[in-house]
Amino acid sequence: MTSIPDELHYTKEHEWVAGVDDGLTLTVGITAYAADALGDVVYVQLPEVGTAIAAGDSVGEVESTKSVSDIYAPVGGEVVEVNAAVVDDPSLVNGDPYGEGWLFRVRLEGDADDLLSPEEYAALTSGES
Amino acid sequence: MSRPTPLRGVHETLGATLTDFAGWLMPLRYGSESAEHNAVRQAAGLFDLSHMGEIFVTGPQAAEALDYALVGHISALEPGRARYTMIVNAEGGVLDDLIVYRLAPEEFMVVANASNYPMVAARLTERAEAFDAAVDDRSDRYALIAVQGPRSQEILATLTDADLDGLRYYAGLPATVAGRPALVARTGYTGEDGFELFVGCDDAEPLWAALTAAGEPYGLRPAGLSARDTLRLEAGMPLYGNELSAALTPFDAGLGRVVRFDKPGDFVGRAALEPLKDVPPSRRLVGLVATGRRVPRHGYPVVVAGDGAVVGEVTSGAPSQSLGKPIAMAYVDTGLTGGLAVDIRGSHEPVEVVDLPFYRRKK
């Protein structure tokens, strides 16, 4: 059982979103479950700062030894910051998926109502594992 | 339902990520596959390869039967030696790549890929019919454990009195390892020195435990199929289903040297292959090294840089630990000039064409 921190929100695409309660700038990463399923991450492609994104858009990709997966925008808004450290050292995604392995920050436009609670995400991943 | 190997319990205890491979439940990785890969390059790795098939061919005409059934000159093999060879269909298409061990003058073990061995056993049985030879698929009775990497011999030497120094590459001998009977072969699929141990299913767990304990001071770690795939790719070794298929002849794959027209008698595929031996193939298998960080993968088109014309297809690709860059094997049209790229999900990423293998161990 991988960790699912209580203070975060989640998506069906195995991303986590921090800062939803403040509702301004949200931080996005991939979950420990996803990082574990991918294996060693070797390449991360992130959207450019300033990009306008809509919820559900493919905005980047995470590549591991065995596979490649899209990164989806969990909410709509504007990308205001990306994690250059994770581009330089993609293993941060495996080592610290909820911390140093964060991917990008987005200034929220609209709402973030479609995200999953920790309980809902736990139910989703227990069904898949 | 995937079939477990005799070592399933060990893998579960180690917390392996298990995956279906060719109908078998196999360890994909135990922790970090990169660390497993590097352990094999620098120290040693322990692999469960019990999904492979072991087919025995025995009898006074076993050698002649295999000369007819396979493309290699099997009757020329000395007892105790092994050879890489192939089984092809009448059209010369590759049905599987194999290692044949001559255990005794009239006893051979044919090791076939997991996805193919029931078919290989059936073809061998048909092709041996006219000979005084018996074909017996004993895959269910054997587990296969590999110890691969530069420290392999030191580790194995702590568990056996067998003459490992005298055991050459592509040779095998019956031995006792950790008190268990095993066929010890100096073969592998990693590009490193190493051994493959064919043992009875009941001996697999105790032998794995003994090797784990013996290897601990040498940095041995269990390694899964993910590391096995990146290791063999760096070593430029083909994988059936990727670089080899029934649609390709050994010549197409650049492995025409395994077809031995100089052996006596007919063999299945001879008539189809003989006219091809001097024909330059229209495509050849090459190595690609990506200049960027995105990974060319199986099935991606190879294109001419700039104009985007499709001139080939990637058969295997992965990030290479040893090179620090993505690498791939691909079938590419011959006679091309100018730069190539791989179409990675719509964007053309430049690649350099290099000779195989990507990695060669230091002797």
Automatic annotation (TrEMBL), chain A:
<dbReference type="InterPro" id="IPR011053">
    <property type="entry name" value="Single_hybrid_motif"/>
</dbReference>
<keyword id="KW-0450">Lipoyl</keyword>
<comment type="function">
    <text>The glycine cleavage system catalyzes the degradation of glycine. The H protein shuttles the methylamine group of glycine from the P protein to the T protein.</text>
</comment>
<dbReference type="Pfam" id="PF01597">
    <property type="entry name" value="GCV_H"/>
</dbReference>
<dbReference type="InterPro" id="IPR002930">
    <property type="entry name" value="GCV_H"/>
</dbReference>
<dbReference type="InterPro" id="IPR000089">
    <property type="entry name" value="Biotin_lipoyl"/>
</dbReference>
<dbReference type="InterPro" id="IPR033753">
    <property type="entry name" value="GCV_H/Fam206"/>
</dbReference>
<dbReference type="GO" id="GO:0019464">
    <property type="term" value="P:glycine decarboxylation via glycine cleavage system"/>
</dbReference>
<feature type="modified residue" description="N6-lipoyllysine">
    <location>
        <position position="66"/>
    </location>
</feature>
<comment type="subunit">
    <text>The glycine cleavage system is composed of four proteins: P, T, L and H.</text>
</comment>
<comment type="similarity">
    <text>Belongs to the GcvH family.</text>
</comment>
<dbReference type="GO" id="GO:0005829">
    <property type="term" value="C:cytosol"/>
</dbReference>
<dbReference type="InterPro" id="IPR003016">
    <property type="entry name" value="2-oxoA_DH_lipoyl-BS"/>
</dbReference>
<dbReference type="InterPro" id="IPR017453">
    <property type="entry name" value="GCV_H_sub"/>
</dbReference>
<feature type="domain" description="Lipoyl-binding">
    <location>
        <begin position="25"/>
        <end position="107"/>
    </location>
</feature>
<protein>
    <recommendedName>
        <fullName>Glycine cleavage system H protein</fullName>
    </recommendedName>
</protein>
<dbReference type="GO" id="GO:0005960">
    <property type="term" value="C:glycine cleavage complex"/>
</dbReference>
<dbReference type="GO" id="GO:0009249">
    <property type="term" value="P:protein lipoylation"/>
</dbReference>
UniProtKB/TrEMBL annotation, chain B:
<protein>
    <recommendedName>
        <fullName>Aminomethyltransferase</fullName>
        <ecNumber>2.1.2.10</ecNumber>
    </recommendedName>
</protein>
<dbReference type="GO" id="GO:0005960">
    <property type="term" value="C:glycine cleavage complex"/>
</dbReference>
<keyword id="KW-0032">Aminotransferase</keyword>
<feature type="domain" description="Aminomethyltransferase C-terminal">
    <location>
        <begin position="283"/>
        <end position="359"/>
    </location>
</feature>
<dbReference type="GO" id="GO:0008483">
    <property type="term" value="F:transaminase activity"/>
</dbReference>
<feature type="binding site">
    <location>
        <position position="196"/>
    </location>
    <ligand>
        <name>substrate</name>
    </ligand>
</feature>
<comment type="similarity">
    <text>Belongs to the GcvT family.</text>
</comment>
<dbReference type="InterPro" id="IPR006222">
    <property type="entry name" value="GCVT_N"/>
</dbReference>
<dbReference type="Pfam" id="PF01571">
    <property type="entry name" value="GCV_T"/>
</dbReference>
<feature type="domain" description="GCVT N-terminal">
    <location>
        <begin position="9"/>
        <end position="263"/>
    </location>
</feature>
<dbReference type="InterPro" id="IPR013977">
    <property type="entry name" value="GcvT_C"/>
</dbReference>
<keyword id="KW-0808">Transferase</keyword>
<dbReference type="Pfam" id="PF08669">
    <property type="entry name" value="GCV_T_C"/>
</dbReference>
<dbReference type="InterPro" id="IPR027266">
    <property type="entry name" value="TrmE/GcvT-like"/>
</dbReference>
<dbReference type="GO" id="GO:0005829">
    <property type="term" value="C:cytosol"/>
</dbReference>
<dbReference type="GO" id="GO:0004047">
    <property type="term" value="F:aminomethyltransferase activity"/>
</dbReference>
<dbReference type="GO" id="GO:0019464">
    <property type="term" value="P:glycine decarboxylation via glycine cleavage system"/>
</dbReference>
<dbReference type="InterPro" id="IPR028896">
    <property type="entry name" value="GcvT/YgfZ/DmdA"/>
</dbReference>
<dbReference type="InterPro" id="IPR029043">
    <property type="entry name" value="GcvT/YgfZ_C"/>
</dbReference>
<dbReference type="InterPro" id="IPR006223">
    <property type="entry name" value="GcvT"/>
</dbReference>
<dbReference type="InterPro" id="IPR022903">
    <property type="entry name" value="GcvT_bac"/>
</dbReference>
<comment type="function">
    <text>The glycine cleavage system catalyzes the degradation of glycine.</text>
</comment>
